[in-house]
Input
Amino acid sequence: MKRRNFLAAAGASLFGIHAPAISAQGNGIVMTVNGPISPEKIGVTLTHEHVLVDFIGAEQVNPDRYDAEEAFKVILPYLRQVRNLGCQSFIECTPAYIGRDVKLLQRLSQAAGMHILTNTGYYGAANDKFVPKHAYEESAGQLAERWLDEWREGIEETGIRPGFIKIGVDSGPLSDIDAKLARAAALACKQSGLPIASHTGDTRAGLEQVEILQEEGVDPTSFIWVHAQNDWQLMRRIESAVMGVWISIDNVNTNNSDAIIKKIMDMKAAGCLNKILLSHDAGWYSPGEPNGGDFRAFDALFTNLIPSMKETGFTQQEIDQLLIHNPQHAFTIDAKTSGL
Ligand SMILES: [Zn+2]
Output
């Protein structure tokens, strides 16, 4: 009954989309900043981007450091640009304590006419500069409870829920705090069904995280290996993809189509096209810099990579697999395990 109310309330969400009725078999949902949508509505998706990132550090980060109105005006044209190129959903990967601003995301989503997902979790990469102090003192279980609280109650009293868990770890061997973040993510995933996207320093760190997830009983299909293009070890990526891990190649830009296509073709040859996610890791309005600094657009995938892939012989079906079906599967939350 509770779940039914929740979905009914969300039925009034953006674009007149009505939240799906949960069937007896238990359909999934994708959780956007405007509430849940049916996974079939996700469409062409950029799976790893940022609108605003503040690198000032966990202790000083604060929404007062920027003018949200100015940020909105700078960022919106870039979202409209990719919306016009066919992008329907946008996964915003900036975690708390590094500039996550969910009200800004909601406003941008509505103005751009594009689904946006935000996240819960902490970023332990960059030598832990963005990890809040309490994360050192609390257990993995306590951190998971904080993140689950955002899932159940909404983020910072906005009612906006995360669509995934975002963490970050440096290169392996994992530090104690990075291992704790991975374990907290696993615990929160088990009780929410939220997928885990982890900024991952190198191959060793990726494999260690998967081990921690498995220790906690979390299936590797819930894990998105962010920046998997770094320290590219094809066989380890194939092994991981075969286990179910999502391989996020998220450095698409205007100059690297050939290198990206080579990686995709190698994965395709191993039968792993269904485990690849593609994105730019672009954006990055920077508080403290005039007009937010040098904002990077989100269009290269549409204007460079896809045309090059078609020339190389990729079919529309394969491109849809990469841009629509894979993101849909990666970000679908099982309604039965959501706890809502
Ligand atoms: Zn990123």
